[in-house]
Design brief:
The chain has ten helices and six strands, in the order αββαββαββααααααα. Helices cover 50% and strands 6% of the residues. The protein has a four-stranded antiparallel sheet with strand order 1-2-6-5. The protein has two domains: 135 residues, no CATH class; 166 residues, no CATH class. The radius of gyration is 31 Å and the shape is elongated. It is of the alpha+beta class.
Amino acid sequence: MFKNMIREIEKISKQQTISIPVKADKDGCIDKECPVEDCCFGFKVNETDWANLFKDEAVYCPQCGHVAPSKSWWTKEQIKEAKKQAFNFVKYQVGNALSLGAKDFNRQPQNGFITFKLKVNGVQSRYVILPIEAQEAMEQKIVCNQCNARFSVIGAAFFCPCCGHNSVERMFDQTLEKVVSKLNITDKFKAVLDDSGQKDEAVITCQSIIETCLSDCVTAFQFFCEKKYQTPVGEKKISSQSFQRIDFGSSAWKKVLGQGYEDWITKEECSELNILFQRRHLLQHCNGIVDEKYLEKTGDQKYRLGQRIVVSKNDVEKLLFIIKMLASNIRLMTGTSSLT
């Protein structure tokens, strides 16, 4: 009776894998997820590119840059569904073996006083492994400008999952997009806190968000310039954070491109840029308290020594406009005026 079941169990034990297909979404992309527990960033890759461009030994998380073999990137939902289907498939195979064994037993002649018949209930006549359904398509679609791999994300993506390329231009754009998003929620956030009777917390928290936005803008522009700037042959490589100094940055670009900040923005905007960069410096190193160096470098007559600067949404919006204008000209003159 149990020969068929034993034979089927032996067959299953020798079978190394049970293949369960994964369905692509309407855009032809399949779901992936970062295996790092603190990240778990979800993204999608083009199914054809996954087969033809991606390497088995290394796939990169678009969010944190973690590197792991291609087999490590299944989503939690895919793993859960795969385990469920594999269990049900094995259950079907064992049940089918029991059913066949019972039929063989029942076909054997029984001449004794007592006869037996065996019946196995709950066995499916057929079991079909179904493809794991895809999650909804993601709107932000990206093509790597290094390897041409196609992928999509929700939120920010700093690394190509196929080759690991870190696009400084994409990082710059996405940082500024996050700044805009944070600015847009401050009024709503303040209203919620006000309604809950937390007026002091509302003012402090929203001001902190705005100050962080100013810092994010400066850091993003500095990093963008550092990575885009090519030091002329024979000259010493510029030091880190050099592009936080407006005069230096303008002169550096003029040396390699023939034009500097004053060629791309107005004199008033150059002055505003310098003031806002210096205010960010105060926030980072002096808790926002005006010192003599600030007054000397900016000529800012709005503040006197010892005051604390106040950063407004309008300040951040001005800085966003100016650095976008500068970055646009740098891209244009370095041959990368558009993003892929």
